[in-house]
């Protein structure tokens, strides 16, 4: 397939889906975002609390962690609840750990001080790319939670707990060519699927590529990385725009 | 306190909060509703599938069940996920069972035939009355799921699986007087808290009253039942109005 | 069916089964009762211990909680053990919570001081009404446990931790008419099943009514409440009689 | 200590506690026994059902299994429920397996045919020797369950599923000398504790001896075995006497 | 079968399999042994840590415990992992408890001081007698762990935490005659299976005999005990020989 | 640090640790390998069974899956067993899934036919790179298991279920420069850690890179990929050498 043939939904190979970042979607959470990558819809709630887990007490360092989950009917056919099954599946574990590591990569724990932030990323509707949407939205919720914590006096006025921004996007080889930000239909067809997490200044935090079908060679790998760099740069711009809008203005 | 003193949010004692019923909030589910009782926000997804659980096979009867859960940061302070704890708490169990029984009370399982409907009620934001909002919203999602199932040919054109409608509301004794549809602030203060589930034609499906403080006498109990009857009648009208709107018109 | 037609076991509609309350059935427990409602047989053990759970320490308040369970062969056909299944079912959770709330409703936690009482209600044989028998028996065991704790010096001589007594009974609509204290055969047939918990002075602690078949109207609801008030008054008299007997006199 | 010094409760070294075997303590179970070894009280329910577990289907063989558990306040201080903890402890597992093996040792599975018997042994009160009381009582319940199954036509009239009887007793070294049927006080003091399961004709099914304190030599071991043989012979007589009484005559 | 007929693998009735005890099989553990009884291969790791569990703090006493497990493909056909099933089976529980008790029988907890030793016995390959191999190997690992703890200064130079040595062997009745150290083929055929744990000076720590087929009489029991005494004496010599070899000399 | 400065253990930046691949380490498994990357020691057992999981029956396709686990004392300090904790941790889940996907990438499920292979990778000793050692060793065990299955007649003589070979290695940025095959000491220090799985013909199956410290730029990423390609090529040669040796010749 040539690079100029449009994708099944009309997008160019290097084009993101429609991205919407709605801040303050919840009333209670210190930061919250409803993030949408096309039909994928993830609710990110950032909970800021004073204090840290026991094993970190007295260290002077903060803590950031994340939990990812899907509502049972976020998907095309209903899945059983992990709470009902009584255990969390491997995929959920994996993604929760990924989201946590990604957010921690841009937090200076010393500047955060002994405060904790939990990022709950709940997929309300899934159409591919839920983990990358979660990371991208969680960053914005994290920024708001830190400012809420600061306003409540838990952080010094001059503290700078963020060393940068972070976003994530999926890339994959579909029909033999690299494409950006796969939706569910493309994801099913992809020979290779890669999730890339990057900082706002263009460095890599995570690269996770998997050959679903045939193994891929170095050339295709380089092509995927190029696409991901462009996608993350665009997401960084959209995160910044959402954060520049007056707080609580963008409403559900 | 006299009956005419306004409540902390300005409502009359027999006044519901603002109720919003948004149909088709999800793209995949056969029926879905985002129901709001004031700031309480519950996402109800109805999944229609052919076939019934093994123990019911060959009976010619359908099956309707429900699962209720709260997102960890739906509440004022974050709660641990039940999936992470590895077990479902007693309260979750209780409410899931209540929602299921309530919905089954207006379904004719013979007319439904060997089809199953699961109602997932996930609380996105909690401000009191989440179980009554869940029942009220789930009914609307159920109606849509049945029509989706009929359109897909899983139900006869002439089947009438619904014997009526169902809604629910909380009532309680706050400051010594019965009030309708308590929010979280009132719920905390209530001496008695009662959840009432009723059919559209004014009969009772469930009455669950608990004295949180002093036990209550028969007179107060009668007063609470009166209030609940009025509240459910109003909710029935709002459910009908939502269902009368053209499908997919009311959008997020 | 007319109100004067006798029930399947010969009782009048407003007649309790034979009630037996045997105190001190166990040697170790601070209070213990084998309570029988006809063939329903529940062993209630009240464990009094100094101290309270961590979250209540330093409050000066006591704590009362309950756990309900059924032996696997208490029922007509054997049920799997919840310990073997590795989790407690929704029904068990619900009833444990109900018993605990009911008993707490007549305890003055300040007068109890920082002491804990756990009420274990284990159903040895089930024939309908196990939860109401559990509450009725647990109250008597609780009284004995408090006196044992007082004798051991954990309570002041003058402390009055009990604000009243509590008992419970089931009522239901069977064959179209309200009846009191359903056994298993009636329970299966009941269109509506209601459990009512009341204090000795005739006020309500819990009202839990469920339409198993057709929803019920206000008139039937009022009839059920009337029956329950009479039943609980009788149970209160029987509890008092058991407590008036010399301790350890009534023996297995 | 000389062999003629009486034990703390006045018994001779080779004397059992008072043994009571009450048949038909339950109304639903196919066989049931309340067995008492002094203050130790175990309820044994035998459930007879047609059919066998899946892995045994078509073999023509029956199946016998057992579950042992303690009520939370059977003991001196309350223990947490295994159902609440979500898992069964090692001791419970061990004893359940022991009871099952012991009963199976005297069942001819071919004669039982494809029927199953589950023996539930629930300790209502514990004062040492609960597992040996459980085995001794379960045998009697098993006999009754087999006759109930035969009466219901699930067994041939001429089938002889029992190859003998089985009973069990504990022995131990207390104060340097072997004693029979230890109660809790002796059990705590014992240097060595041994449980012995024997058939009615004096052969061994299980021998489980543990040095709690100092290891024991062959001479003491031989002395313990002698005592156990005498105790089991006496228990065999008591089981037979209970079974010889007219069914349902001995009542609670 | 006469006592002089050789066994299926050519051994005499009172002959052990080839026993190999390889010390220091692991680099990290304070003591470690790969013990082999013929094809049965168990890795015993002894972890020495300062401090004791919370319930033992301040007692001045040490703690020794053990965990036994089988790798999924240690057996002839693969078994499911207990970690995947989410619970430990009864057999694993039983053996872990047996190994712990056996090792504790020769430890003077006062001399050990407030230090803990955990013995992990993981069966890499199973061919009968895994629990007895585990005990026999764990003793050697325990000795090494104590010396490592002493060298690290956690024990006084003069402390003597060991009161003796411990080993274990299985005996059983196969083909009507007692034999020593059964392998898997014999274990399957055995009418009676007995595990015996003894101290180096010839006293009994545990005797666990089970009739798998016919119950056994006192004469056979005595014969089994004789055989076990001889087997444990030989194992004691082999343990000592392994410990006499220069540390780290015997290598994988 | 310059590229020619030796590493803490004297290795060059592009040098593997000593690799040992011992085939047939177990007697029962259809294929088994003890693989060592320096002091990291992983036992890989491949279990070949006829038939496939239920969801795959009748498809004509085979199935390959993997389970990874660490022995509690494989590490420097003892970890709790996942079977005792009652749940599998996220890291274990992640690695099991990775090993399974990696092996499946070179299996032609059609050629395998309706047979299943489970790869159990148990870490006996951990010193960095356990997951890459597991994949590298599991491939060799898989080859042997397939040949065992073929010899047993479960595969056609002419079936070619393997489309190639697979190996894995870790690379990372330590002291600012990319190095190959990190041991534990380096792993702890690494700013970035990447695991790369490749086929024998030099294509990528998985690329999983994580910035533990600072995010990394594209240049460093390219350098890591270069190193990994060299390492996997060498591992491929060592796998082939092990497989070329006569079966059962290389012994423990």
TrEMBL record, chains A, B, C, D, E, F:
Instruction: Cite the entry's keywords alphabetically.
Output: Nucleotidyltransferase, RNA-binding, rRNA processing, Transferase, tRNA processing, tRNA-binding
> What's the Enzyme Commission number for this chain?
2.7.7.56
* Listed Gene3D superfamilies: GHMP Kinase, N-terminal domain (3.30.230.70)
**Residues that coordinate or bind phosphate:** 91, 129-131
Would I find Plastid among this entry's keywords? no
Organism, by scientific name, is Mobilicoccus pelagius NBRC 104925
Q: Name one GO biological process term.
A: tRNA processing
A GO molecular function held by the record: tRNA binding
Its quaternary structure? Homohexameric ring arranged as a trimer of dimers.
Reactions catalysed, semicolon-separated, are: tRNA(n+1) + phosphate = tRNA(n) + a ribonucleoside 5'-diphosphate
Q: Does the keyword Protease apply?
A: no
Stored NCBIfam families: RNasePH
Which InterPro entries has this protein been placed in?
Answer: ExoRNase_PH_dom1 (IPR001247), ExoRNase_PH_dom2 (IPR015847), ExoRNase_PH_dom2_sf (IPR036345), PNPase/RNase_PH_dom_sf (IPR027408), Ribosomal_Su5_D2-typ_SF (IPR020568), RNase_PH (IPR050080), RNase_PH_bac-type (IPR002381), RNase_PH_CS (IPR018336)
- The protein's name: Ribonuclease PH
Q: Which gene encodes it?
A: rph
Report the protein's function.
Answer: Phosphorolytic 3'-5' exoribonuclease that plays an important role in tRNA 3'-end maturation. Removes nucleotide residues following the 3'-CCA terminus of tRNAs; can also add nucleotides to the ends of RNA molecules by using nucleoside diphosphates as substrates, but this may not be physiologically important. Probably plays a role in initiation of 16S rRNA degradation (leading to ribosome degradation) during starvation.
| Family per similarity comment | Belongs to the RNase PH family.
Kind of enzyme, top EC level?
A: transferase
- Every copy of the Exoribonuclease phosphorolytic domain together lies at 15-145, 165-229
